Amino acid sequence: GMAQAFYFYDLDLDTPTPLLIHPFMVMDGTLLDYMKVDPETAMKLIDDMIDTTKSVNGEFISLWHNESFSERGRWVGWSDVYVHLLEKATSS
Fold it and tell me: Which of 10, 41, 52, 58 is 20 to 30 Å from 25 at the Cα level?
């Protein structure tokens, strides 16, 4: 993955552009739908990503959808994952 912002490179013009890309590290839907992990496993994976990002003085960006905070259906327990992410990311 990438933990640093970078300038988008225009392949047609063979030159970097002024567009600065800030890649995200994790997305709620990827954890649940593609990796098929439960909230507890997601927290462990996120901890590892945050630790790695901090070790390279990187930028940790996550993507969360509104429905993942609903605590309904398949999203039960996932609001806790987000709270855990915030606590881990802001700890020293």
Answer: 10
